Amino acid sequence: MPKEIPSIELLETKQIEQFIPVLREVELGDRFLLAMLHWCEIGQRSTPLDLWHVFLVQHIGETVGVTGLYRQPGMSKDVGWIGWFGIRPRFRRQGYGTSAIKRLTAIAREVACKELWVYTGSTEQIAIKFYQNLGFAVVGVAGECARGQTMDNSDVVLKRAIQS
After folding, report:
1. I want to staple 65 with a disulfide (CB 3.0 to 4.6 A). Which of 57, 59, 103, 154 is the partner?
2. What mean pLDDT is predicted for residues 85-106?
3. Which domain holds residue 100?
4. Could you tell me the pTM of the whole model?
5. What's the CATH number where 94 sits?
6. Alpha-carbon gap, residue 34 to 122, rounded angstroms
C-alpha cells in the first residue's frame, strides 16, 4: 500500500521572524541565512530577481519547512529554480518534502515555467536521490551547465519538465 502524502500549504511571506525556527534546524549554513535575509528584503541582491517567491511549508498550521521559487538573471523565462529547500529534521522522510515540491511545481506552472531546476551539493546523495525520485534528471556539474548560478561550481544541477 503506498504511503499517504501529507497535505501541506505553502504560505508566502517575507517575514524573516517566521523562518527562524526552520533556519535553526535546517543546517544550510550562513550563505543560506544571507540569502533568506535578501529574500525577505533585508539587504539587497547584487542582481535583482524578476521572479521571487519564498514560502513556509505548513501542515495543520505548523511550519515543517521552507522553500522558494525564483528565476536566475539571464536564464530563459521558461525556467524556474527551487530556492533553498529544507524540511525540519523531525518532519523528514514522512512525505512533507514530496508534497512541498509537488505544490511548488504547480506554482511554477502557474507563472508559466516549463522547467524546474534545482541544485544541491555534489556530496548530497540523499538530496540527489530525492529529486530524482520526483522526476528530476541530473543536468551536470554547475561549473559546466550553470556557471555562476549556484553556490559552488561543483554543485549538481537537476531539472524536470513541467507538464501543462
Report:
1. 57
2. 93
3. 9-116
4. 0.85
5. 3.40.630.30
6. 21
